[in-house]
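Researcher: If convenient, please comment on what follows.
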Amino acid sequence: MAVRVQLEEFDVGAEIAKLRADPRVGAVASFIGVVRDVNDDAAIASMTLEHYPGMTERSLEAIVEQARSRWNVYDILVIHRIGELRPTDPIVLVIVTSAHRGDAFAACQFMMDYLKTDAPFWKKEATPEGARWVEARDSDDTARKRWESE
């Protein structure tokens, strides 16, 4: 299990290849979050992600541990970028390996639903009208809440 917060872009293929080298793995589920060029009908020139070092990694590790306790997974990797990113740049990568697809899919989706609500990142978008902080979305809270009953 690994968590990385970094400025540099990641190589999705290389990261997946490392995790699927385990011969027990029968399923690999992954999610890549990407910067869009429009958000709430405003053009986005760039997005800057900020975090609290140490606190952020501990929060991500706690989310990984929650996923591990719920599903039978072999490995989980979370990479989240910080700094200034432009449209089409990858922001986040979550990879989950397991024996079977159900556990891999569920753990991956759970991880993203919790990352969107519980991970301490702050996003500022540069738009033609000026910079603005990205607000939390009700849809993210709703997605996270569905895991509370399971």
Remarks:
- The radius of gyration is 16 Å.
- The chain has a mean pLDDT of 94.
- The CA atoms of residues 64 and 111 lie 7 Å apart.
